[in-house]
Amino acid sequence: LVLARAAERTGLDRHVAGRVLAWTRGSPSRLLPAVMALAFVFSMFMSNTATAAMMLAMLRPALASLPEGSKTARALLLGLACAANLGGMATIIGTPPNAIAAALLEDDAPVDFLRWVFLALPPALLLFAVVWALLARPLIREKSTLPPLQEAPREGSGVRRWQRLLTLAVFAVTVLLWMSGEWHGIPTGVVAFVPIVALSMAGVIRKQDMRAIDWDVLILLAGGLSLGVGIEKSGLAEWLAGLV
Hints:
This protein is an all-alpha fold. It is 71% helix and 0% strand. 33% of the residues are buried.
């Protein structure tokens, strides 16, 4: 959540998306896979909802130029929604249910960040390809040209280039540490403090940014885990299973 917030504040996410979408040059056949790929990658590390909202803001001018009932608009919106959800499957931090599942597996079959990626990324990519193939077929004969896409408006002002580069570097280091946990032995939870400390000390993340994080999601996650442990330790789970 801290990494996602830093990317939003510095405009790193919109900058990367804008560069990639500029490559499409208004071609629907290029725009669809580009939008889906960006949504997939961003949602691996950001909220699915935030990813979809950001991408939709960038697509709005192009969608507005299309006629009502356009196959291109339908394909872009469906592709964006599906890709954002599929990308969330690929990593532990992609969506809260993944973290819940990983925590419940901690005692019997521990799953670290890299192992989760190895297990979840292939089916996510397979589903991504299936969705893209289904949505791209109607666009083969589509000859409409979309207007150039621009970056979505930035959230705040006063963000410097070095802060964006620092966010990118911290992001890369954090993901690398997560994926190499089997070798260095640092727990995933401890690695999660790297962006919190580094970005806070550098001033990229401010007090108001920390307050804006969806803490209710984290509290809900912790409450769900506590409830699950309580049901298991109290014997309620075994009793309920016996009733079935």
